[in-house]
Specification:
It contains 3 helices and no strands. By secondary structure, the protein is an all-alpha fold.
Length: 90
């Protein structure tokens, strides 16, 4: 008999879902009610700044990945004249 089967998977899923719901309700009940004293404009500004920072981070990550993917060997070989075709000065 296998341990991993549909019945055990269903029981595990139901247990996990119920445990998450119970934990969320306990946390909600235990936390004091928030009274936000920050003006709405400030909240919106914080959200806008967070989006801009996230976009900047994503752009920097993409640029770094793109930069790593380019072939720098060809540039280096041209710079140090590898291959015997160096220019001679006369």
């Amino acid at each position: 008999m296998s341990i991993v089967n549909r019945r055990n998977a269903m029981i595990g899923w139901a247990t996990w879902t119920t445990a998450k719901r119970v934990a969320a309700m306990k946390a909600k009940r235990a936390a004091p009610a928030r009274e936000s004293k920050a003006p709405k404009g400030k909240k919106k500004a914080v959200k806008v700044v967070a989006v801009v920072v996230a976009a900047g981070g994503a752009l920097a990550f993409w640029k770094a990945k793109h930069r790593d993917a380019t072939d720098y060997d060809s540039f280096a070989s041209e710079e140090i004249r590898v291959g015997g075709d160096a220019e001679t000065t006369e």
